[in-house]
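Lab notebook page, bench 4
Experiment: in silico fold of construct C2
Operator: M.H.
Input chain length: 242 residues
Purpose: comparison with the prior construct
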Amino acid sequence: MNTPRFFVPPEAIRGDRVYFAPDQAHQIYRVLRLRPDQVVYVLDNRGNVYTVRLDRVTRGEVVGRIVDRREATGEPPLRITLYQALLKGEKMDWVLQKGTEVGVHTFVPLLTRRSVVRRREHKPRWERILREAAEQSGRAFIPRLAPVHTWEEALAAVPSFPLCLLAHPAEEAPPLREVVREGGVDSVGVFVGPEGGFTAEEVRAAVERGCRPVRLGPRILRAETAAVVIVTLLLHRWGDIG
């Protein structure tokens, strides 16, 4: 079994001791069935990973002692901000989980013309999904979760990216491989639409701001699939995956 990893807030680390949150104590004691003297990794979301030997393990409290600290690894060379239009049901949860595993840096939930979900935000659940996915996948940081943005708010940020892409299945959109070359930039904004896609007006507005429409292949992908595919292809292009 891989050594379990836990993100904790700064106040949980006091001197050489780590005090785990109640839900983490439950996971350590009940789910993982760890006991004193066993080792876990603790991350402070500031770039450090600690090797921690468990001292006290009970149903309601788990405390460990730090035996080593080093720089955390696991972050990709390309900082991807994913503007994902709000999706129905558990699809948004899936994008957050898989996007974290693949390497998204920041998630921006997005309201678009064809979004069926109207400004529904589930921040506590979404933050838990991001934390657990970051722990499982070996990330050094938990991805940032921005508040829900309107289309206009999202477009206002486009000029801040050296490269901005919009997933668009139209035949006139060039393939991603023709638009993106390996390296050259260290951050990129990526827009992925809702189940019904972006409207023509939204695409035109994004292009006017500097976003570049790209096709991901010859087949039409579901919104949640497109989000993970474009992130994976970008990180492959930057030499991080594959």
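Observations: Residues 5-71 form a domain with the Ribosomal Protein L25; Chain P fold (CATH 2.40.240.20). Helices lie at 22-31, 91-102, 123-137, 151-156, 176-179, 200-209, 223-237.
Next step: discuss at group meeting.
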